[in-house]
Write a structure and sequence with these properties.
The complex is a heterotetramer, with 2 copies of chain A and 2 copies of chain B. Chain A is of the alpha+beta class. In chain A, 45% of the residues lie in helices and 15% in strands. Helices cover 51% and strands 16% of the residues of chain B. Classes of the chains: A alpha+beta, B alpha+beta.
């Protein structure tokens, strides 16, 4: 079976894809929509899903055969059952009608953006204030979202809204798949301290979303949302692992930097460099153990340590990189300096973004160590009575 | 020891604080750093009118005759606003070096120009190491009655806006200091693209440029000026540390999550309490060092070195944690936290690294009476 | 006035005290009771108190004149208005009748012990469970106290008890001055990890204390207790300052150790030693500023940082001492090793005793930084309903 | 690579765990450390009967033919109970050195005696530095067919209870290893007063004592044995770290203050979460190092060094914080926390310091292919 499949995909890719130009064979340039349709139609985009929903009903292991072939051919569009958050959520939680209406569109379009955080709802996502008010077959949306990546390109957004303020906060939330390309949706990039602007603010004024685009049920959006972020965490975790610098066989960046700047004879720096390298390698080893545990038992509490550990690693490496470079790090005229300064700022992306270190520690203490849950004073009172700044 | 009473000192600090509140808001700073010079010259002139540029210059030369204690206090005020003018170079290091020189007439005129705000002086004090306690990389050769300077000085602050430089040179192990106007032939300024946009750094190259020797100014005088400079910087960092800390505490009190101010969460409280020790330690070290320098106490060098690495490291720590405590909002360019944090990175290296001064501090301890 | 006083004390001490033998002139050995009576009778024990209560009505500054003279002559018994917790508390909070009955006894006897902490009430002192039940003119006491120093020698203890369990915890506490020398009081030393046994457990079974020995009022003991611990904190703060090693002119212990073990050329250790010395010196400088602020404004928030700072100093110095000594530190056969190992254990005395670092941080955050108070779920419910382990 | 299946390995660990639960309770440990020998010889015999003393000895010599992976797993169990027997010396280092020797008959008999529990072997592996990666301070001189040993070995564990020693010696830069019975003339044991009462350390002096050369055992074999030893110790520390951490979490759940379990206080939760990373990192480093050594992976040395300083440092950190998290109760001798904490201090130095192995780890990284 595996060999047959491998052969089939190889043949298909050879017939359809140009690995040199990284586009459809003969086309000369890459047209995302056109190519994704081909991949989805062939059943290669979401192979673990049933045929009814554009898949092949394969096991995850067999699905990897397809992914590996795609990666070998440098072809795009694989693994959307693992990485396309919007599609996965609709697949898992949408009605058949909703799936019929949206799934193909989602799978063949750009990825969905995430309309979760708000200026007043960061760590406390259940505190969202963006209102959704029923109006005939639609809901009318008003509010502001923040830290949304890909908001400009996205055709849909996964939107967390408040639909009832008279009940406790978790009970008045509704989760939508929200059309982004409409009047009343304004996207403004956020200037980040790294010099990047990958994130946006999204201002929503009297925008509309059909009631049938609710994911899950009215006022029960928090539970649908949990499913969505579980997938997100999985993706982030994988992202972290693949971002690891200094994987097998490669000289770790910090070691190379120290070598290039002739600092490997400095005994004080040696200790700091060694410890920084150790923290990174220890996290790799922890994540390897996590992988083995998942393979054996289906889950691993170790996986939840990776993001927190990465904060110490990234902030530490940036700090030591600066020490290695010396005062020249103040001047952004070499690649080493630019990298060190960028990395120092970027490290906050890990320690703040996607749940701050402090939130991660709460989660680890409560879910992994089973320490008693903290009291959330805003949990059981009507949302309209929750204090805010 | 200073002749200023504590009240006098507080009065000039208040004056400076009001001036900065009026003329050097965060918005203004963000404008200024986008200009080619990166300096608000009008503000410098206003400081001169208030006597601040001549803080260490005697009254008879137009200054107000303060000591490093007044400087340190003013720098705390400056640091809180991330003030970015050439105060340490022009009004601290230059007057100390010039006052030590025996070619009195020449230096008196210069000191008057500094006090009046007419001249901005930049200091070329170190080579590629950035370390003012190591030998400079500019050399001076006597040619008849002339002195000819060659070599490069690195990490020179405010070079573009300077009217003249004081240049530390080394020959045969001896340090000498020269005055050289900015437009002198053979002097070339290379401005750099700094990560901290509030401070400009340049390399100044000397190719047989002619300088005027500050007579009688040698290694000891240069060391003494460096010690005052690092204490002034420490004061600036202590002030900046306190300001970003206070902003953070304010945010903890006003930002609500989970129906309460986030400052009620114990983990954040504990971070804040730990940081308060760093904030107060920075202030204490800078102030005590200034006092010891002003009174020529035997442990003045030790305290100056302690202040140098303590204020540099604590500013870095507090400003870094301030971003974390703010969360996402401080990840945006519009929020001031990263301005403090970047200034703190710069401060890690100006005059020399924390590791270097930690080592010197220990050496002072070893030889303490 | 100051000069007269100085002269007077000098003369008195010369007439009464033998600085060589450190006892009363001519006596040959020190008899505490006898000497203290002389000092109290002369008005030198509590000079800032009024004459009615064995003092001289002096200002703190003038009182120092007496203290300095005593210290110069190596004479004991000075400063009991600053250091004798029991006497100070009775002086501040006791009725005239109680003062008449006890004060002289307290001032001329050994110091009072503190019967505050219980096995179940450490950080949460208001959670005391030792019961005091009225019986005629007496109260009958049952319970267990812990971490009591000087319990063996003490003639009195300052005793925190529960007198009402039907009201919230702070409202049912009564504070007594409690006679230790009676049946029903059993003192057992605690073996500490330092090898010391300065602290004790005190088991109290059907012991008695007269109702007139209540400090303050029945069920309002928490407020009296606050006064007592304010004095205690002051004493501890002073203690910390005077315990500072490496005061002016002396080589710091760590530096001497590094020198003796020839480690001042090790660049890695140099950084660690320098930073450790810096932490200690910075705390000294902070406390000097605190002193100046107190002199100027009557109080200083800086003072409250000293104890917390001392934890990092002490734990750090112990760790670095071990690094300086090297593997020989494992063997308790040199004074350096014994000191390093003792100090490593003793550091917990500061970071746990007298309010853990964690409690200190709460206090600093709430009282100095004015961050919002944490919610104490046991604060407003009847004591009998408070959950315990 | 080991022939043991994961289930086999878990089974012997379970067996050992049950034995220790039965025979090596904390109470028992406190009794044993008060005895002159400090060792429970009956327990050692029981371990022998279960095959554990011969864990690395082939079946044909009475052992069970496991690898360092089994050793590491067993040491995690041992560490949890602060087991204090001569397992690393007798059952890890000795078999590795002896198996490498070419005087087969002599060593086979010895290995049989180890497997059967008849002989306890202590290892004299270092001089005053305590560092097994540095040159030993015992020298050996050949005198006809005899080898004569002189010098001192320091920080020797289990010397008093040993029947014989393996002694690392250096001559002309070369390491050789000798067998020498405890009662050999010229061998003198000086037992020391250790701060950690669970482990005894001795200095062993050799004054022209006669030893038997392990033929073919040189620097490389000694280095290899040392690497297995540090990984075994790392396993012990990882197990101990997890145990004291688990005890602490349990305490946080059961100790009430302010009407709630103290584990609900966020600051303590965050300390616990941070410590969990250290606990898991210790386990991961020890296990991966064992696996790499067992399979002779090219990065085995690097991983062994990583495990050495990680487990030593994390055990210290976690056991130190455990005392703090317990509060006053752990300041008493009766509470077990300080036993873990003292063992952690000892582990900082056995075989060499963390700083030393951090440096070696970096050296391995520098030369990695």
């Amino acid at each position: 079976m595996t060999a047959d499949l491998k052969n089939e995909v190889e043949v298909w890719l050879t017939e359809h894809w140009d690995p040199e130009a990284e586009c459809e064979l003969g086309k000369g340039e890459y047209d995302e929509k056109s190519w994704l349709k081909k991949v989805v139609d062939a059943g290669y985009a979401v192979p673990t899903w049933p045929e009814k929903w554009f898949g092949r009903g394969l096991s995850p292991k067999d699905a990897r055969v397809i992914e590996n072939a795609f990666q070998k051919h440098k072809a795009k569009g694989w693994g959307r059952d693992r990485f396309h958050l919007g599609a996965i959520t609709i697949y898992k939680l949408g009605s058949d009608a909703l799936k019929s209406e949206l799934l193909y569109d989602l799978l063949t379009g750009p990825i969905c953006c995430l309309l979760y955080s708000e200026p007043g709802a960061g760590s406390d996502l259940a505190g969202v204030r963006t209102r959704a008010v029923r109006d005939g077959d639609d809901f009318i949306i008003n509010g502001q979202k923040v830290w949304t990546s890909n908001a400009v390109e996205a055709e849909y957004g996964m939107l967390l809204t408040r639909t009832d303020i008279d009940v406790p906060k978790h009970q008045g939330i509704t989760f939508f798949i929200f059309p982004m390309k409409q009047e009343g949706v304004e996207v403004r990039p956020i200037n980040q301290i790294t010099g990047e602007d990958e994130f946006n603010e999204v201002f929503i004024s009297d925008a509309r979303v059909p009631a049938r685009f609710i994911i899950g049920e009215l006022n029960k959006g928090w539970f649908s949302f949990q499913t969505a972020i579980a997938s997100e965490r999985l993706i982030m975790g994988q992202g972290i692992t693949s971002r690891l610098r200094g994987a097998a066989g490669k000289t770790p960046a910090l070691l190379k930097l120290a070598h290039d700047h002739d600092k490997l004879n400095d005994p004080v720096l040696r200790q700091e460099i060694a410890q920084a390298l150790a923290y990174r390698q220890l996290n790799t080893l922890n994540m390897l153990r996590a992988k083995e545990e998942v393979a054996k038992n289906g889950s691993s509490s170790l996986a939840s340590l990776g993001k927190l550990a990465m904060s110490r690693i990234q902030h530490g490496e940036a700090r030591i990189s600066a020490k290695i470079i010396g005062p020249q790090v103040l001047i952004n005229e070499t690649e080493d300096s630019r990298n060190a300064n960028f990395d120092a700022a970027k490290a906050y992306m890990n320690s703040i973004g996607g749940g701050t270190d402090q939130i991660q520690k709460n989660i680890i203490a409560e879910r992994v160590l089973s320490l008693p849950k903290s009291t959330d004073v805003s949990r059981d009172i009507p949302f309209k009575d929750v204090k805010s700044s | 020891m200073t002749d200023f009473s504590e009240e006098d000192r507080e009065a000039i600090c208040d004056m400076f604080r009001r001036l900065l509140a009026d003329q050097a808001s965060e918005e203004k700073l963000r404008e200024i750093i986008e200009t080619p010079s990166g300096l608000d010259k009008a503000l410098w002139q206003q400081m001169a009118e208030l006597g601040l540029t001549g803080i260490m210059i005697p009254a008879e030369l137009g200054g107000i005759g303060g000591s490093i204690e007044e400087v340190e206090a003013l720098m705390e005020v400056a640091g809180a606003s991330l003030y970015n003018g050439p105060f340490i170079s022009t009004s601290v290091i230059a007057p100390i070096l010039l006052s030590a020189a025996t070619n009195t007439e020449f230096v008196s005129a210069l000191l008057e120009d500094i006090a009046s705000g007419e001249k901005i002086i930049a200091i070329a004090g170190c080579g590629r190491s950035g370390d003012w306690t190591k030998s400079p990389e500019v050399s001076a050769k006597q040619n008849g009655s002339e002195w000819i300077l060659s070599g490069s000085a690195c990490f020179v602050q405010h070079a573009r806006n300077a009217d003249a430089f004081l240049v530390a040179t080394a020959q045969e192990g001896n340090v000498a200091v020269f005055y050289i106007p900015k437009n002198a032939p053979g002097l070339d300024i290379v401005e750099h693209d700094t990560d901290d946009k509030t401070l400009r750094l340049s390399t100044v190259d000397f190719d047989k440029a002619q300088g005027i020797l500050l007579e009688g100014v040698g290694e000891e005088q240069f060391k003494s000026a460096t010690q005052s400079a690092i204490v002034a910087l420490a004061g600036e960092q202590a002030g900046a540390t306190r300001q970003i800390f206070d902003l953070t505490i304010e945010y903890l009190n006003t930002r609500f999550q989970f129906g309460q101010p986030i400052g009620r969460f114990q983990a954040l409280k504990h971070m804040a309490a730990d940081l308060l020790i760093e904030v107060e330690s920075a202030s204490s070290s800078a102030r005590h060092a200034a006092r010891a320098l002003a009174s020529k106490a035997p442990n003045a060098s030790m305290l100056a070195y302690l202040a140098k690495f303590t204020c540099a490291d604590n500013f870095r720590k507090v400003s870094a944690d301030a971003i974390q405590l703010h969360g996402g909002i401080a990840y945006t360019v519009e929020h001031p936290a990263h301005l403090y944090w970047r200034r703190a990175q710069t401060g890690q290296w100006l005059f020399g690294s924390s590791d270097r001064f930690r080592d010197l501090y220990l050496s002072e301890m070893e030889t303490a009476p």
